[in-house]
Amino acid sequence: MSVHKEVKRVTTHVLHEMKVRGEKISMLTAYDYTMAKIIDHAGIDIILVGDSASNVMAGHETTLPITLDQMIYHASSVVRAAERALIVVDLPFGSYQGNSKEALNSAIKIMKESGAHAVKLEGGKEIKESVERILTAGIPVMGHLGLTPQSIYKFGTYTVRAKEEEEAQRLIEDAHVLEKSGCFGLVVEKIPAKLGEKVAKELEIPVIGIGAGGGVDGQVLVFHDMVGLTHEFNPRFLRRYLSLYDDIKGAVGQYIKDVKSRDFPNAGEQY
Ligand code: KIV
């Protein structure tokens, strides 16, 4: 029997057990009650209330503008929906960088006001002190390395990270630092598959990849991308399971036609 099938509520311990047993971990983003309910009922292991809400929900070009209060709004909607998944919330840009006391306060505010189970921070050695300080409050922390979208203006592009040996070595060192600091898991984004596999093999904590190949311990995608609600974003790592952009556009077009032609509402659709 898989760990996945046995548990009523996924915890950080369950995720660790899944890694030990070689059972892959599934993770998707959600930002609202209705979608989170469907994703949770489908049996996802982790729901990430990602700061990608800044792009997907608010239409910003980057993840930088979203605020702590906006993240709490999204997270509390997801918490009200999910009964089984572990809910991880991104600490947004500007709420933790360079100040471990502020990181702790931001993490406490998220946990207190949303009811989520863990927070995620981007970065390596430079966030070590923040990770350790947040953990003193008993808040589980997930790391995020590779392409870290909050640093997009430093990178300059969204291309694959750590292709060169020096950056790959730095990423491996950062992964070890995060594990030693007490992170319960790590997201690695857009890195070569061989490097993803190496990191997952070297660490005892689960390593979840997005564009990091099949050798990691689990996969995460942005929900709106995997169901095709977004249609202009087509990276190689993305598998689309539905084409909801086209389906919804078609349905709305049909509705408009029905209204204009007086086909809707018909006799059975009125009082
Ligand atoms: O914000 C987000 O959606 C993320 C995932 C891409 C891992 O951090």
Which fold name is given in CATH as the topology of the largest domain? Answer: TIM Barrel
State the distance separating the first and last CA atoms: 52 Å
Rg from alpha-carbon coordinates: 20 Å
- The level 1 CATH classification of the largest domain is Alpha Beta
- Which structural class is indicated by helix and strand composition? alpha/beta
- Summed up, the helix count is 12
Largest sheet entry: 8 strands, parallel, barrel
Binned strand content: 5-15%
CATH homologous superfamily designation of the largest domain: Phosphoenolpyruvate-binding domains
Q: Trace the largest sheet across and list its strands.
A: 1-2-3-4-5-6-7-8
Poorly predicted runs are none
How many separate structural domains? 2
Second-tier CATH architecture of the largest domain: Alpha-Beta Barrel
